[in-house]
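Usage

Read records sequentially. Each one opens with the input sequence:
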Amino acid sequence: MKSISYKSRKRFSEDEMFLRSKVFYKMMEVRRSVRKFSSKKIPRRVIENIIKTAGTSPSGANCQPWRFVVVSNPEIKHLIRIEAEKIEKENYEKRFTNELKNAIKPLGTDWHKEFLETAPYLIVVFQIIYNENDSQRKKNYYVKESVGIAVGILITAIHNAGLSALTYTPSSMRFLNKILNRPKNEKPFMIIPTGYPSYDIEIPDIKRKTLDEISIFID
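and closes with the structure output:
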């Protein structure tokens, strides 16, 4: 593989590093998941840049095992909602334990998934388990880990653009392959409704763990 110089990577003074890290943290600190979206349209070029940013993610053996299917078609979003709500209704009525229901109750969620239609874009993320070329199957490595990192960068890019998102994972997602005409080597990973939050939205006043609670420094 051809190598390129990385000496041009810009370096910052210690003070500037600290300031940049603090500013970025303050920006991300206000990020929240939302379940009520405005139908206001988002320029496609913004979404394209967000997807390209997610594509800069590291991946196992540089396989880049992700596919981002961006859905804005109202009819297809409607089909996705219908299938997702079938699964969710059964979950809430038959499968979810009372403990789980109590845990998610403060989030204000139930089996109704209006956001699948109201959000201007649904970014459906697929894991590419393997590639097939000329009848040759090539395995991808560390697929779930790689796609998980890419989704983290995707969500950060969405927030950086001034938009909001929700990470949504129905318990069964294979219906997405059929609706979106994706091959069997692609496995649904997550649906990320993306757009502006609705004007009347209120969100849970969640508290995040402190630095001491989430980290250990070993000097």
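Summary fields computed downstream for this record:
- The chain has a mean pLDDT of 94.
- The domain at 35-197 is CATH 3.40.109.10 (NADH Oxidase).
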